[in-house]
Design brief:
164 residues, mainly beta, 8-stranded antiparallel barrel, 0% helix, globular, disordered N terminus
């Protein structure tokens, strides 16, 4: 996939844009201010297990810290989210507390965080074996498990940056 920069040149990464205007056309505008853009950190991206479609993780890395958002289902099949909000990277992975966040503001309603409840539900550790494979070990409310995960690729033959 190729995107197009504001100066018309091509790039191999898509640049986020705001879509502004209705009816009279669409005007793309940059979300970020102009200037140099840092490449995505090596772990940043969507991770999943193709043999267990329906759940996955979004990992965002900034320097030696990672944020993991895990979308999955609870014991009765209800969609749920867990986060590891501060996961310090040491060696080939990170370990942190797992939290459940419920009671947020519904889509389309002005933000009101009064009903939000953040609860520590366990611990988790993410370990990567190379740029595109890893595992998540977790203990949530007394339930222990391991999930094998791979980076979700959006193009055949895509090369990921090396992990520092």
């Amino acid at each position: 996939m190729f995107g197009q920069l504001g100066d018309g040149s091509k790039t191999d990464r898509w640049t986020p844009v705001d879509v502004v205007g209705f009816g009279g056309g669409v005007t793309p505008g940059p979300v970020l201010p102009p200037g140099p853009v840092e490449p995505a950190s090596p772990l940043t991206g969507l991770w999943w297990n193709q043999n267990e479609s329906g759940w996955g993780m979004s990992i965002t890395q900034r320097d030696a810290m990672a944020f993991l958002a895990w979308y999955t289902y609870d014991s009765i099949g209800k969609p749920t989210w867990f986060v590891i909000s501060a996961c310090p990277l040491v060696g080939s992975g990170c370990t942190g507390d797992i939290y459940s966040v419920v009671g947020g503001t519904p889509l389309g309603v002005p933000w009101n965080g009064n009903g939000k409840v953040v609860t520590k539900v366990g611990t988790g550790s993410f370990a990567y074996s190379d740029n595109n494979t890893g595992s998540l070990n977790y203990s949530i409310n007394g339930v222990n498990g391991t999930k094998q995960i791979t980076r979700q690729m959006f193009a055949t033959g895509a090369v990921q940056p090396p992990i520092d």
